[in-house]
């Protein structure tokens, strides 16, 4: 709905009396009527046409760049880190990474409803520090993000949330997207910049502004660069597991990404086990114990960034990726995650969207916050040497309770090899796994 009129409600709403809420609603009626009756079709079409050009001068390059960054901060476009000035020449250079028309609308950003054109993506990509070859991944990530059930909602929610993106296929090595040690951390241009470009689009086009349209209470550093990793295909080849996307029907050589909103960061799972069965028991104990410490979504799933050593132990024990997800789906829902005798009060107070019949449940029931559907459990083999995996909570939102992550093939231009060559991608060496 690109022409949708938006009115921002005073925040927060929870905890206010009916009288106060009534007064706020009555005070807003004029703004609401204006938003509903204002002709916006012409305005929406204009935003998809041409990027506005601004002129900034300085005593030298550094001075002009500093003034540009101050301007972006004032306009609420910046993520707080220095941005590269997107001159016409540099934006045209980034556009060589795609064969799609600059004025093509890729998605409608939220909460603004404004059009995200290919050119707008190039502008933000350059400001973030991108190379032309990153464009197909950034474009595909935005298209897939637009299909997630709560993608745009996670940009403005009160919870700490940011996209988690896993890339698979030859493109991961071509762009040097890290899949090994510190994959979700620093040191790799592609991992950092691809996520930062997406986050900048949320701000510059989507209109995400802290405290105004982005209502995250304490926030999260991941909203600067998201989390971008590649699946460690070298480790997968060693242990004999197919990639996640192969299990979904994509070919081994397909370039594919999976994206979705990751909430509340992750839990580190350190396990040194002697067998696959012991490792699985420990995994179940770890994730069910950590969920028991807090109130989580109803019927949620789990995303694991599984370290290669854990994946190898499971593979050697005869466990496939599908067998592991089935094991989670049949075991975790039986684990209770709320104290006996406190279920109704704790759950109702912390999670107001509880099922309507919750009040009819006895105090001593064993209630789980985990899904019984294997599709809600995603496993990606990521990382280097060591015995530490990461669990990311997947929150299922509304019926039919989609797990919230979307997988989409990355289409590269016909002259892809030339684009990669001209991007002059610097490959960072990584040590091999101990085995």
Task: Give a short overview.
By secondary structure, the chain is α+β, with helices and mostly antiparallel strands.
Structure description:
The protein is of the alpha+beta class and 435 residues long. The chain folds into two domains: 1-38, no CATH class; 39-335 and 370-423, no CATH class. It contains 16 helices and nine strands. Strands 3, 4, 5, 6, 7, 8 and 9 form a seven-stranded mixed sheet that branches. Residues 291-298 have low confidence and may be disordered.
Let me know the average pLDDT. Answer: 85
Count of domains: 2
From the N-terminal CA to the C-terminal CA, the straight-line distance is: 53 Å
Question: Which regions have little confidence, pLDDT < 50, spanning 5+ residues?
Answer: 291-298
Order of helices and strands: HHHHEEHHHEHHHEHEHEHHHEEEH
Portion in beta strands = 5-15%
Strand tally is 9
The number of helical runs is: 16
- Helical residue percent? 25-40%
Largest sheet: 7 strands, mixed
Shape: globular
Secondary structure category: alpha+beta
Rounded to the nearest angstrom, the radius of gyration is: 23 Å
Note the topology:
Layout lengths: L17 H20 L3 H7 L13 H14 L13 H8 L9 E4 L6 E3 H11 L6 H11 L5 H6 L4 E8 L1 H5 L14 H16 L17 H4 L1 E4 L2 H7 L16 E15 L5 H17 L8 E6 L1 H9 L4 H11 L11 H8 L26 E5 L6 E7 L11 E4 L6 H8 L12
Helix pairs in contact: 4-5, 5-9, 6-9, 11-13, 12-13
């Amino acid at each position: 709905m690109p022409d949708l009129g938006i009115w921002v409600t005073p925040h927060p709403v929870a905890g206010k009396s009916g009288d106060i809420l009534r007064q706020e609603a009555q005070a807003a009626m004029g703004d609401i009527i204006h938003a509903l009756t204002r002709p916006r079709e012409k305005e929406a079409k204009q935003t998809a046409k041409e990027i506005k050009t601004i002129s900034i001068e300085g005593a030298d390059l550094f001075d002009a760049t500093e003034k540009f960054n101050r301007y972006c901060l004032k306009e609420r476009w910046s993520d707080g880190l220095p941005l590269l000035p997107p001159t016409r020449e540099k934006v045209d250079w980034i556009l060589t990474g795609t064969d799609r028309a600059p004025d093509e609308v890729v998605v409608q950003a939220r909460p603004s409803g404004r059009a995200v054109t290919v050119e707008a993506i190039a502008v933000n990509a350059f400001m973030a520090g991108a190379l032309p070859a990153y464009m197909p991944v950034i474009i595909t990530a935005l298209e897939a993000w637009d299909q997630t059930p709560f993608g745009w909602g996670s940009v403005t929610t009160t919870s700490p949330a940011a996209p988690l993106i896993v890339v698979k296929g030859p493109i991961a090595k071509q762009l040097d997207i890290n899949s090994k040690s510190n994959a979700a951390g620093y040191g790799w241009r592609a991992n950092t910049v691809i996520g930062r470009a997406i986050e900048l689009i949320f701000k510059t086009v989507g209109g995400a502004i802290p405290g105004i349209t982005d209502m995250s209470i304490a926030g999260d550093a991941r909203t600067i660069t998201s989390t971008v990793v590649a699946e460690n295909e070298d480790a997968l080849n060693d242990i004999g597991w197919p990639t996640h996307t192969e299990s979904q029907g994509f070919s081994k050589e397909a370039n594919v990404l999976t994206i979705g909103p990751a909430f509340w960061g992750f839990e580190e799972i350190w396990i040194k086990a002697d067998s696959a069965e012991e490792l699985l028991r420990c995994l179940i104990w770890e994730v069910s114990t950590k969920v028991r410490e807090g109130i989580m979504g109803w019927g949620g799933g789990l995303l694991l960034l599984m370290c290669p050593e854990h994946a190898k132990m499971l593979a050697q024990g005869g466990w496939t990726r599908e067998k592991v997800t089935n094991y989670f789906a049949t075991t975790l829902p039986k684990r209770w995650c709320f104290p006996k005798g406190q279920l109704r009060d704790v759950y109702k107070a912390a999670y107001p969207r509880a099922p309507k019949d919750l009040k009819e449940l006895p105090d001593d029931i064993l209630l789980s916050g985990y899904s019984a559907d294997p599709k809600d459990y995603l496993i990606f083999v990521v990382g280097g040497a060591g015995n530490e995996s990461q669990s990311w909570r997947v929150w299922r939102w509304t019926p039919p309770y989609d797990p919230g992550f979307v997988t989409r093939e990355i289409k590269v231009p016909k002259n892809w090899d030339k684009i990669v060559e001209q991007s002059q991608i610097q490959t960072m060496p990584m040590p091999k796994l101990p085995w």
